[in-house]
Amino acid sequence: MVQQPPGSHQVLARKWRPRDFESLVGQDTVVRALRHALDNDRLHHAYLLTGTRGVGKTTIARILAKALNCEQGVSSRPCGRCSACVGVDQGRFPDYVEMDAASNRKVEEMTPVLENAAYAPSVGRFKVFVIDEVHMLSNHAFNAMLKTLEEPPGHVVFVLATTDPQKVPVTVLSRCMQFGLRNMSAPAVAGHLARVLEAEQVPFEAPALELLGRGAAGSMRDALSLLDQAIALGGGSVSLAAVREMLGAVDNAVVGQLIELLADGAPAPLVALADEMAATNAPFGQVLTMLARELQRVALAQLDPALVGDEPAEGGDATALRRLAAVIAPEEVQVWYQAAIHGARDLPLAPDPQVGFMMTLLRMLAFRDAAAMVAGGAPPAARPRALAPSSSRAARPGATPLADASAERRTPERAPRQPPERPPLATAPVASAVAASTAAPVGGDGVVRIEGEWSDLAARLPANGSARQFLQQSELISVEDKVLRLRVPIRPLMEPGIVARVTDLLSNWFGTPVRLDVSLGETGDGTAAARAREENRQRQSEAAEAINADPFVRELIEGFGATIVPDSIKPLQGDAG
Fold first, then answer.
1. Domain count for the chain
2. Residue 37 to residue 441: CA distance in whole angstroms
3. Which of 15, 17, 121, 358 has the fewest CB atoms within 10 Å, measured from its CB?
4. Does residue 229 share a domain with residue 95?
5. How far is the C-alpha of 504 from the C-alpha of 488, rounded, in Å?
6. What burial class does residue 541 get, using C-beta atoms within 10 Å of its C-beta: 0-12 exposed, 13-18 middle, 19+ buried?
7. What are the φ and ψ backbone dihedral angles of 517, each rounded to 5 degrees?
């Protein structure tokens, strides 16, 4: 076996730099426009390429220079073998000039370039001048190039590249054809890395490439550099564990565990898990970002399970994701997502990262009750209190005599208004009598007896997470001896672990072991969730009636033409007094 001499290894970012438009990844719009211009002889004299680092700006400039000067003729498919193509690739073609404006920004350094542009090409058809980071040029340098940029000789093509087009003067922008290069998506980067590794005959794990794709933040050059580092760290292969160690990433299973603990509503396990993560120097900002990303996938699964696909992401389990989507209320997912992104944003302001991370998790737990009320889980005992506009007009201490002068215009005082009495809600009949306010104790014959409505009992049981969702969405069919026959609307609620937790709750409530017989089917109005939705609808209706009947509101409507903004009336939870 012939060994390569020392120093002959070429890094992947250089070795796999695209040499033609066909091998360029992720910039289809720009490539299509340039190919059409080259094939139809509709070339512009100045191009401005914008985009973040490593997306292909100078690479496109080199391919364009080869297409213009290839010995086979001007074409969108340069041969790549002639002296012109090879010279551009190797940086020794005399009619191709690359200039770094970050280190050559003065007018004295721009003047020789403009003077060179006046002369005919030495060996090629066109002189191609590439000015990288053009926004770094001084104002005098920009002014010096304006005339040449507006009316250059026919043999000159300028290619300006920048990561910050906002700093380029409009007088320059107006003289160029602009192309915005897009950041490459993580799947596109992972797919290209897979092709590179297959060609290099390097074994790899697909989830590791997905993680590298996100770590590259849309830059293919950064992705190839990270890939080189991962190969070196993995001893000639690319594994998920090595990439996680290199990037300081956290196992996706930990994020799933966080969501499950949030759904259970138990703070002690959350604190313990945060302590374990702190002991391993986990990057809490990245954990919150991963948590937000996973919650976004949960929200997609709640809309349509097919949107998340069946392939695991970073080792994540699509089945577990769908199970979480079934047992967590959509409102809770939205609140937790907002808390995660705000927590990641505010983490630098926290006393230390662990404190900021822990407070974010506790904030999510604190908002669980609020999300539950939005979802229709308010306790049946809650009663509405309309938002009284007159409360904002309470008399202030130290009122001026001007207020007394207009006393005759004030609205007469009104007695406190009680909310109208509501008839009892109609509930779906069930085959056996179920608990009214509380479940009756077990009778002397050992039979479980329930009086009243199942929805009341389900709302009172101290359940959290998936068990609470089961109780909220289940409907009682019958009670026979110590067997409760229940119906649930979705299959994930029938998982043995959830049924076992609900069985334990009911056994503790009745003081004797009970058994659940759970079936799948459509539920009616006998569930706690349906009753809570009806309660909320009635509270909203009463609040709207109270506002519309308020004399001060009527005065505003009749005297000033005011209107009540739709959906702006919200009932207040609490006593009406």
1. 3
2. 85
3. 15
4. no
5. 18
6. middle
7. -115, 100
Nearest to 249 by CA among 291, 222, 211, 275: 211
- Give the residue from 373, 393, 418 where a domain finishes: 373
Q: How many CA atoms lie within 13 A of 295 on its CB side?
A: 26
> Which among 321, 50, 49, 55 is positioned nearest to 185, based on CA atoms?
55
**Cβ–Cβ < 8 Å for 297, 290:** no
Could you tell me if residue 541 is inside a domain?
no
- Cα–Cα distance measured from residue 234 to residue 240, given in angstroms and rounded to the nearest whole number: 10
Contacts of residue 193, Cβ cutoff 8 Å, sequence gap at least 6: 204, 209, 212, 213, 223, 224, 227
Tell me which amino acid residue 327 is.
Answer: V
Question: How confident is the model at residue 377, as a pLDDT?
Answer: 44
pLDDT value of residue 256: 84
Question: In degrees rounded to 5, what are phi and psi of residue 97?
Answer: -120, 125
Confidence of residue 8 (pLDDT cuts 50, 70, 90): low
pLDDT in tens, 287-317: 999 899 899 988 888 887 777 765 544 445 6
Are 152 and 42 in a shared domain?
Answer: yes
CA-nearest of 285, 277, 413 to 340 is 285
- The answer to whether 204 and 35 have CB atoms below 8 angstroms apart is no
**Residue 317 has what pLDDT?**
63
State pLDDT tens for residues 244-263.
Answer: 888 877 777 788 888 888 88
Same domain, 369 and 234: no
Pair 552, 398: CB distance under 8 Å:
no
